[in-house]
Amino acid sequence: MILHLDRSGYLAAVILLLYGLLTIGYAMVTPVFEAPDENHHFYTAQSIAAYGRLPIAGDNLARQEAAQPPLYYLLLALLIRQPEETPALRLNPYAQLGETTGNPNLYVPDANETGHTAVRALRLVSMFLGGLTLGVIYQAGRLMWPSRPGRAVLALALVAFLPQFNFLHAAISNDSLIIFLSSFTIWQVLRLWLRGVTRPRLFWLGVTLGAAMLAKTAGLLLLVWVAAVAGWWWWRAGAAYGRVAAARDFVLFTLLPAFLMAGWWFWRNWMLYGDPTATSVFIELAGGERSLTGQRLLAELVTAAQSAVAYFGWMTVQPPLFVYWLWGGVVLLALVGVLTAVRQRAPIRWELVLALAAWVALLVVGWLQFMLKTPADQGRLLFPALLPIALALAYGLSQFRYGWLAGVLALATSCYALLVVIPAAYAPPPLITIAELPPTARPMQATWGPLELVAVAPLPATAVPGEPLALTLYWRKTGHIQQPPTEVITVLGHDLALAGSRHTYHGNGLFPATLWPDDQIVVDHVTVYLDATMTSPTETRLFVSILDGGEAVEIGRLKVIPAQWPPAAGPPLAQWGEGIWLTGTQVLTHTGALEIQLQWHITRPPAGDFTTFIHLGDPTAPPLAQADGLPRQGFYPTRLWAAGEVFTDTYTLRLPEEGEGNGRYPLHIGLYDPGDGRRLPLYVNGQRQPHDAYWLGEFPATTR
Question: Please, what are the domains in the chain?
């Protein structure tokens, strides 16, 4: 990496400045409490500020966060000037946390923003702690590679421009404190290893460990790691220092200060909850222990990897896949660089590398055990290991001449998330006037009290089961609305079975009707997911209504087709018209009925709607039994058929109890125009068939 020593400090300062600007931007575009557990973190600190004592974990606003170590909340409480000021927010009943297909917001926007300023101001604490973390990462890089400052700058840039790091440090979260204290602890261990052990350094290490244990339970893992590294170092190189003296100094100047600082907290938890770490209480309030299948664990690991890069809101706002591909490429390139360096026998402090890797492994094991008990598929929980990970990435990338470009790519992804992804996710719907309605919109003029559905945009030509269906509805308010009304979208599919539904406040939960102006139309973009198991092909019916507000109104019909058409069962058996091929038949005999299964292969769409006839008996005489009907029980008329489609159509022919005879009679099928009764021409091997009817076989005419 081509960076000069005298420039590294300036570059580091510029990166820190950009980090600050980015994080402030994230704090501005992310609505209040729309970050994981930000509400509970705030209410925990607010409770301390209001009552002057630590809250007890329970069914209150602090929820499970009241069981967390208190240092972060004590810091926030010192900055809260008006403890009684609580943000005026209403929970969104249609929020789907951890899902990108529902409302992205946990809280419904309100015109009253009381308390919002206080929340945004407290977010600056996290931003400041993130800046300290970055400074420690840079100093650790300088300590590791005194003659290669460019690596320290690159490690700094990769973390400073990691979108999830920016998002996390733009919210109220105790993660920001434990990430800093973990990084600071690792830096101190590196300094002791590389610069020598002194009692003052051991003491400040103990103070940092005590603070870490008061910041989050991951501090206990940090203590275990420090003790293990110390034991390893003394066993390998402590003879010169004196192993007994080294152990004594570690106990007196590191462990003792740490436990004097944090021991009271664990004693309090033991007395209050019967659990020194209060982890069991945390899990209970977070939803209780769960059983996790292997498939679900794998899915959560993928989510955790993604959320370590970029996953915003309450895990509800996801960037495009290219963001993950870019970061995945950076990690892969760094890994190749590390392997190249090892292969070329580059000088590597293996004991130090193994010690840093041990901290990452210990944190991962602790996180996995926690995730097996309660949902914790968030990569931010591994950020206490950011320092060794950043150093490893910087080392690997520095093996390439243009490895520094990874920092530029990181900056681009963070800017993209700030300027595009998050604002788009929380943007309210557009407002237009009646004169600005698109000419393609279909007028509706359906009303539910003071709400009017003015028009609907044209529906898409087709849809696929399991895929999102995007609708655009044009609403306006004609009177006062006191409570946010619920918009209901219903999709009825084959046999009028429910094929999809959506309950939401307007504007995807971001613009309830209580906020609408009186003189404008709201362009409401709504997405409803079709049931992945619904029967297709079929014609669905779409309805809109207001919950508890009156009858639903049909807004249109939509053709739903499978994601992939099946292959034809065999060569064509018969052809109707110019492009309707019959490629498979099967007649099943049941008690009192015949079940006729036909496979159609469409090579050219028919013009108009045709009815299928099923006739049993002499085709020149009235049928003894018949089952005429529109294809697929009337839910897939021929006017919807298109070239390339292959599907099965089933009919049921009921047999009378008594008929004209006890023999067997021919069964014929065909298609006709219900308007004039004319049958579509039928060809078999190029020859037109008598009566334009296809013979399926002979069957009894009665149930006897």
Answer: 5-424 (no CATH), 431-560 (2.60.40.2550), 574-700 (2.60.40.10)
